[in-house]
Design goal:
about 200 residues, five-stranded antiparallel beta sheet, four-stranded antiparallel beta sheet, 4 helices, elongated
Length: about 200
């Protein structure tokens, strides 16, 4: 049995919390009683703040649509844009987000029974923009992690503690991984923004 010193146990357990606490997962109140929740890069779902199941949520084993990308409110509706879905290259039989394709949903802002409610969609771009509920001057908003900076500060603090405990080789590996993840996130956001503006 491997014996770990108390500081090592602390670093391992605390770093797991720092990375998991908001780095990938969040729930964001987007207004009008709705929330967007992210539990993985594929599972980004829409639901009501205080009641009921998810209204729109991609399933990792179904390729009908992917995670929620943007949203917009009108007087009567919540409009949702999602990525497409494609077969995952890593896990056989499951799907991952396809940012090159989009799907759309139209959700009533006043849902009486979230257990029975079914939104309109998924629609392709032409059917969505022809729908009477969609205004011509539609302005999309992106859902973001409200705790992103807090989680990032937690990871930075963990990196500092790891540096003190384990030295430069370990910290260089960790910094490299974190920089890769941050750059990948920025590149994806820019690509998505270009696709939205196209």
């Amino acid at each position: 049995m491997i014996k770990a010193t108390p500081p090592v146990v602390f670093i391992v357990l605390w770093s797991t919390q720092a990375i998991a606490s908001g780095w990938n997962d969040y729930t964001s109140d987007i207004g009008h009683g709705f929330r967007i929740s992210k539990t993985s890069s594929f599972t980004v779902c829409l639901g009501l703040i205080d009641r009921g199941p998810d209204i729109i949520c991609p399933h990792p084993d179904k390729g009908d649509y992917g995670p929620i990308d943007d949203y917009a409110f009108t007087d009567r509706h919540l409009l949702i844009k999602t990525h497409g879905a494609k077969l995952s290259p890593h896990i056989k039989g499951t799907y991952t987000a396809d940012p090159d394709r989009k799907h759309y949903f139209i959700v009533d802002k006043h849902i009486m029974d979230p257990y029975a409610y079914v939104p309109i969609g998924p629609l392709d771009s032409s059917d969505f923009y022809r729908h009477a509920a969609v205004p011509s001057d539609l302005q999309w908003e992106s859902s973001t992690n409200p705790n992103f900076l807090f989680a990032l500060l937690g990871v930075i603090l963990f990196l500092g503690l790891a540096l003190l405990m384990y030295g430069w080789p370990i910290i260089l590996i960790i910094v490299g991984v974190v920089l890769f993840l941050v750059v990948r996130r920025i590149v994806r956001r820019r690509k998505e923004k270009r696709l939205r503006n196209a």
